[in-house]
Amino acid sequence: MEILEAYCEELGGVVEIYEAQEEYFAQPAANRHRFKFRCSDAACRAAKNPLVVGVNYDKNAEESDKYQQPHFKSHTNHPHIDTCVWVVSDAGKREENPSGNERDDVRHPRPKATNVVDVFEPRHSDTLLGAASADARPPAVVSNDAPQEDGGQAGIRAGTTTTSRLEKLIDCWSNMELDARRHHRITINGRTLTYHQLCLRIITISEEENGSRVVYGGARVRAWPEDKPTHYYVNFIDGCDRFPEVGGEKSLTISLPIKRLKQSRRGALLTDRIEQASQPNHYLKVYAWGDITARTGNKKGYELEVAALDNLVLKVVKKKPAERK
Ligand SMILES: [Zn+2]
Hints:
The chain is α+β, with helices and mostly antiparallel strands.
């Protein structure tokens, strides 16, 4: 199982790697520095205070459609106490190959030896900058995102992993083989689907499935108005083919007010991804949890509304030169 939580010295608490990622990109672009992490286990920190390493959280573009999940790993020269949750979890961890490429963890069939997400609880509003962390919780609850009052330890025993971060769910989904997607289940708002059913391309989603699936596809982003932008428009390349035309179109757009991005914790990361995607030889893949509705006024086509920026994932993939043969 990947370790997804550690104590961050700069942030002053135990954080999930996805929170560290957002905070990393919230730093001014010219002056970003990696954080210093310690073991998430309080007893272990008190005894040995081992340094641990954050992997991939500071990464820019992905190299393939199989996204590299950010995670923590132990530091060779920094041992943990024997009872540390990291030591217990490490027993089931697959070996890291020499390239440092750390995928394929989902193939280990030990009970809850992976971070496969079982429950997705979409947020209903943005997490604003400066708000207390919604993810902060006492350390040692490593395999479970459920709130403590819900019994974090019980959650581990039951082997349930809950998250409100779509990005964690997408990283999990993208690293699953097709067979595993048919086999693993995910519960969202009380409804259970297979991972195979979870994500639908825009061209395949039906009106009946609207609002109950993750929609994804390639997209281009436009800042508007050009001279003094107030919005980014994320325009999907494909359309909602199974929906009726609106004003002669089936196009799908996500409107992101720049003010909204600036106010929310996830905004800096999304803005950074948008800027990266505009570089040559990069493309943007968008995953969103929300409702597709007909655009109003004189506008044509559809828009996808995301209630919280946590429900929007932008992945920038760098095209390999070989793909352009
Ligand atoms: Zn430890």
